[in-house]
Amino acid sequence: MHRVKVRVVEDALGANTTIANANRGDFDRDHVTVVNLMSAPGSGKTTLLEKVLDGGADALGGLRAGVLEGDVQGSLDADRLSHLHLPVVQINTDGGFGGECHLDANMVRSALPALPLAEIDLLIVENVGNLVCPAEFRIGEDARIMVASVAEGADKPLKYPLMFRACELVILNKIDLLPYVDFDVEKFRHYLGHVHPGVTILEVSARTGEGVDEVRDWLARLPDRVASAA
Amino acid sequence: MHELSVASAVVDTAVRHAAGRPVTAVHVRLGVLRQVVPGSLEFFFGIVARDTVCEGAVLTHEVVQARLHCRDCTHEWTIDVPAFRCPQCDGVDVEVQAGEELEVETIEVEEEQECIA
Known about the structure:
By secondary structure, chain A is α/β, with parallel strands linked by helices. Chain A is built from nine helices and eight strands. Chain A has helices at residues 14-29, 45-53, 76-81, 105-111, 156-159, 161-165, 185-195, 212-220, 222-229, and strands spanning 2-11, 33-39, 65-71, 88-92, 122-126, 143-149, 169-173, 200-203. In chain B, α2 links the parallel β1 and β2 (58-64). At the A-B interface, β1, α1, α6 and α7 of A face α1 and β6 of B. β1 (2-11) of chain A pairs antiparallel with β6 of chain B.
């Protein structure tokens, strides 16, 4: 026996990228624009979705929405969206070693047969709440939205730069709580400006509905922005 | 948990390139911007390598520093804090030239001695 060095030089996540591209091909074929919605646990992604989607396609510039819910376990989030009468599919990641902390391209791929892609224009994928892992795994999305809340620290962009850089829109949620917490919005914007200069920031309260129209507007214009960037 | 997923991806990549040969070492390049903790990656590598040709292999790594390039003024610089605005012109059109690597560079495998006639 002798030892041989083999040159590999390959992105360790290349297999994920290949599957993400296959997902992208399927989405493109049915003209579906896909958003990957990411945040820490408890930032209000599901409440935000309930508010953003409860006006139906009319409130989204005519886009018919569908939702893919990613959670480690259970269907609580999908159940919360069931009254909206739009396609909602739940993916659980607990099949793995203790439950995967993110969605990867293959998990999304396995859920595609359950989604009526031909009847959807906008697919929102609610990722598992986590500020690290989801940023690593592309799933075939066109855009990524990161939700932060004022119940978290204003310094989070500096602590999780990978996540705050891997998105096209940052939503600062729960602004109705600002009078009760020590969150410094200017400091947050300042730190975010270092980590991801130029990124769009929307201040929202999913609870009161403040700023929700701006999120709808951003989503409604997304397919045109994606088309013009291609 | 992040490192567990990355370790699985590293093992999968090494297994594919090993083509059945026992792997004794795997060398990875880790960009600082990927926020991978090397010690944690090594720990999970040892676990996910079990029952594969990578079982018992040594994982070595090199950390790749971040290098940025400003498309506005062509300034190039390195960072050790997450500040992505150009320090020269305050521009925001900044390209990451290095620091995002998550790459299996080489593997070392055992082969039967070949006879050279």
